[in-house]
C-alpha cells in the first residue's frame, strides 16, 4: 500500500527495506515479495527511476524515429519518400508518452500490486538495519529490516571541475533526454555511449552538433572499429567530431555558450551536454552511520552483499560492476534470491553461474548502443581478453558480405568480430556493428554465457537470408584461418 508521509515515532518493522524505486529496487522488491517477505520501498523522486524518465526509455524513444528513417533511406522504393526532416513535435510527443509525461502513477500501481509498501521521501541509513525517511512534508518515520536493507540508489551524471560551470546551466543526460526543444547548436563533451547516442539523436532532429572527445575516438571501451564506424556515420550526417580535445573553459552570455578548448578553439553553442561519466548516489544515504564512507562506489560479494555486512546489499550502479539497467535488474534477481534464501535459513548457491551468484557481471555483460549504425557487444573485447591472460584470436567478418544484410539495407556497412579462446574453444566476446544488429545480441549472449563450444555452434544453423547468417561467416573464417 502507498503510505502518506507524517511523523511516526515508533519504528515500522519489515523483513526487507529497499532504498530506491528504480528498475533495480523494483526487481529486488518483486523477488522478496514473491517469497512472502514484507518489503518497504523508499523513493525520493519518481517510482521507476532514471531509466524510465531520463535514460533508457526517453533516449530510445528519441532515437527510434532517427534509426527508422535512416533504415528507410537505405531501402529501395522507400528512400525517396523519407528525404524530408523528422517531425520534431511528433518525436518529442512520442518521447513524452514513453516517460508517462514524467508521472509515476502506473509504476506506483505496479508496486501496490505486488504488495510492497511505498514510502516517499529521502531515505537514509541511521544505524544497522534501520532507514529513516524524511517525507515531502518534513515528517519522519523509521523503518527497520529484520533481514536486509538493499541500497539501489543508482548513479548520477558527473560534471567536471570547471570554474563557473553551474552558471552555464549545462545539460547532463537528464536534460538531453527531456529537452522540450531542439537547440540550434549543441556541443557534446564526451565519447561514451551517452555522448554517441545523444549526438545521433539531436543531429538528426536538427541541431548542429560538435562532439569533443578527450581520447582518440568514440566508444573507447569497445572494439576500436565500433567507435570508428559510428564516428564516420555521424560525420557524414553533419556532426563535427574532434578527438584529443578537452574543454578549458565554458561560459554563457546572453543565452550563448562559449566553449574554449585546450587547443585554443572557440566554439559557440546554444546548449552544452557533458557526458563525462557517472558518480554513485551514495553521498547522502547515511553510510557513515554504519561505518562506511559516503560518496563512493560500494564493494560487494557475488551475491551483491556489501563486503563485511551480513544484512546490507548494494545492487545496480552503486557497486560499479556494470552500469546498465538490464544488468542491474539481473543483479536484483540474484540479490533478491539470496536475501530470500538467507531469510529462510537455506544454503546460498555460491558456485559460478549459481542462483545466488552474479557471474555474468564478469563474463557476459551485453550492451547495445542505439546509434546509426547500432553497436552490440557482449563479453570481452580482444584487448580485454588479452589483458586477462587468455590465449585468443579475433575473427572478423565484413557484414556487407552477408546476404541478409544486403536485403536489410542497400549499401549496408558493418562489421562483426568474435573473440575465440584458443585453449577452451569457446567465445570470450562478440561485437556487431551495423544497422539492426541489436537483435543479434542475445544469441551472442547465450553463446558467451553458456560457454558453447565452437564445434557445437556449427550446428546452430542461421536462417537464410537474415543478418544472423553472419554466425556462419564467422565460423567459416575461424575454420579457414
Automatic annotation (TrEMBL):
Its EC number is 1.8.1.4. This is Dihydrolipoamide dehydrogenase. Its cofactor is FAD. InterPro entries: Class-I_Pyr_Nuc-Dis_Oxidored, FAD/NAD-bd_sf, FAD/NAD-binding_dom, FAD/NAD-linked_Rdtase_dimer_sf, Pyr_nuc-diS_OxRdtase, Pyr_nucl-diS_OxRdtase_dimer. Keywords: FAD, Flavoprotein, NAD, Nucleotide-binding, Oxidoreductase. PANTHER family: DIHYDROLIPOYL DEHYDROGENASE, MITOCHONDRIAL, DISULFIDE OXIDOREDUCTASE. Residues 14-326 form the FAD/NAD(P)-binding domain. One of its GO terms (biological process) is 2-oxoglutarate metabolic process. It comes from the Bacteria. Gene3D superfamilies: 3.30.390.30, FAD/NAD(P)-binding domain. It comes from Streptomyces griseomycini. FAD binds at residues 60, 123, 153-155, 317. Disulfide bonds join 51-56. Binds 1 FAD per subunit. Residues 365-471 form the Pyridine nucleotide-disulphide oxidoreductase dimerisation domain. GO terms for molecular function: dihydrolipoyl dehydrogenase (NADH) activity; flavin adenine dinucleotide binding. NAD(+) binds at residues 190-197, 277. Belongs to the class-I pyridine nucleotide-disulfide oxidoreductase family.
Amino acid at each position: 500500500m502507498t503510505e502518506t508521509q507524517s511523523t511516526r515515532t515508533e519504528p515500522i518493522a519489515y523483513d526487507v527495506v529497499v532504498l530506491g524505486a528504480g528498475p533495480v529496487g523494483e526487481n529486488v522488491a518483486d523477488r522478496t515479495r514473491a517469497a512472502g517477505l514484507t518489503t518497504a520501498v523508499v523513493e525520493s523522486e519518481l517510482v521507476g527511476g532514471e531509466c524510465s524518465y531520463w535514460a533508457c526509455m526517453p533516449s530510445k524513444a528519441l532515437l527510434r524515429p532517427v534509426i527508422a528513417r535512416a533504415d528507410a533511406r537505405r531501402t529501395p522504393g522507400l528512400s525517396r519518400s523519407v528525404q524530408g526532416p523528422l517531425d520534431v513535435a511528433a518525436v518529442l510527443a512520442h518521447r513524452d508518452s514513453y516517460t508517462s509525461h514524467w508521472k509515476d502513477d502506473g509504476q506506483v500501481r505496479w508496486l501496490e500490486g505486488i504488495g510492497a509498501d511505498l514510502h516517499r521521501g529521502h531515505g537514509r541509513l541511521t544505524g544497522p538495519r534501520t532507514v529513516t525517511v524524511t517525507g515531502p512534508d518534513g515528517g519522519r518515520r523509521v523503518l527497520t529490516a529484520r533481514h536486509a536493507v538493499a541500497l539501489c540508489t543508482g548513479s548520477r551524471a558527473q560534471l567536471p571541475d570547471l570554474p563557473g560551470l553551474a552558471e552555464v546551466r549545462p545539460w547532463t543526460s537528464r536534460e538531453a533526454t527531456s529537452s522540450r526543444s531542439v537547440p540550434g547548436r549543441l556541443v557534446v563533451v564526451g565519447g561514451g555511449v551517452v555522448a554517441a547516442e545523444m549526438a545521433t539523436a539531436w543531429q538528426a532532429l536538427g541541431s548542429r552538433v560538435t562532439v569533443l572527445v578527450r581520447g582518440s575516438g568514440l566508444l573507447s571501451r569497445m572494439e576500436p572499429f565500433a567507435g570508428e564506424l559510428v564516428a564516420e556515420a555521424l560525420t557524414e550526417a553533419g556532426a563535427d567530431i574532434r578527438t584529443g580535445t578537452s574543454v578549458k573553459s565554458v561560459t554563457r552570455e546572453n543565452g550563448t555558450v562559449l566553449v574554449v578548448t585546450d587547443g585554443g578553439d572557440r566554439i559557440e553553442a546554444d546548449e552544452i551536454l557533458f557526458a563525462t561519466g557517472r558518480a554513485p548516489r551514495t553521498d547522502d544515504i547515511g553510510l557513515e552511520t554504519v561505518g562506511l564512507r559516503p560518496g563512493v562506489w560500494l564493494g560487494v560479494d557475488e551475491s551483491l552483499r556489501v563486503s563485511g555486512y551480513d544484512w546490507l546489499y548494494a545492487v545496480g550502479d552503486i557497486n560499479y560492476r556494470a552500469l546498465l539497467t538490464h544488468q542491474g535488474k539481473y543483479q536484483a534477481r540474484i540479490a533478491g534470491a539470496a536475501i530470500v534464501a538467507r531469510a529462510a535459513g537455506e544454503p546460498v548457491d555460491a558456485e559460478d553461474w549459481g542462483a545466488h551468484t552474479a557471474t555474468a557481471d564478469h563474463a557476459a555483460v551485453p550492451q547495445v548502443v542505439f546509434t546509426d549504425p547500432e553497436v552490440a557487444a557482449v563479453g570481452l573485447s580482444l584487448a580485454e581478453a588479452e589483458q586477462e591472460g587468455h590465449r585468443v584470436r579475433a575473427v572478423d567478418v565484413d557484414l556487407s558480405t552477408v546476404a541478409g544484410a544486403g536485403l536489410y539495407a542497400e549499401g549496408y556497412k558493418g562489421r562483426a568480430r568474435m573473440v575465440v579462446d584458443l585453449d577452451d574453444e569457446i567465445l570470450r566476446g562478440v561485437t556487431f556493428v551495423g544497422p539492426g544488429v541489436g537483435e543479434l545480441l542475445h544469441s551472442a549472449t547465450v553463446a558467451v554465457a553458456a560457454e558453447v563450444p565452437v564445434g557445437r555452434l556449427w550446428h546452430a544453423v542461421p536462417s537464410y537470408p537474415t543478418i544472423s547468417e553472419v554466425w556462419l561467416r564467422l565460423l567459416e573464417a575461424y575454420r579457414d584461418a
